[in-house]
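Give me structure tokens for this 124-residue protein.
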Amino acid sequence: MKNKVFKALLYMVSSIFLSSVLALIIGKLYGFGFFENLFWIGIVIVAVGGMSSITGQASGSRILGGNESQYQSFANIESLQVERKLTNYYANFKKHAVFDPRISGFGVILSGLILIIIGYHFSL
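Here you go.
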């Protein structure tokens, strides 16, 4: 557990440092304010951290679209149900979850939220 917390803090500190450097560079090149840049970079970091936390396999993504016939879609759904029964999907739902916020992803999301708060607070 200690290693995971250290890893999360490392991700937080490194992403805050790198985004501060990026905000300085953007501010010097384009003349925007430092804290306004931190705010927008924080929004991007939260979005990237959230998307990087998504794992697993999406089910039902091709049911309504594409060139598949209705029979193929039905076969895909049936095979997904059989697969879920074999792997005991519902009993181990946390293990098979699509959104699994790992400590590193949580650290990136938290650092983005910190940047948003800092950027909003100091830009007023």
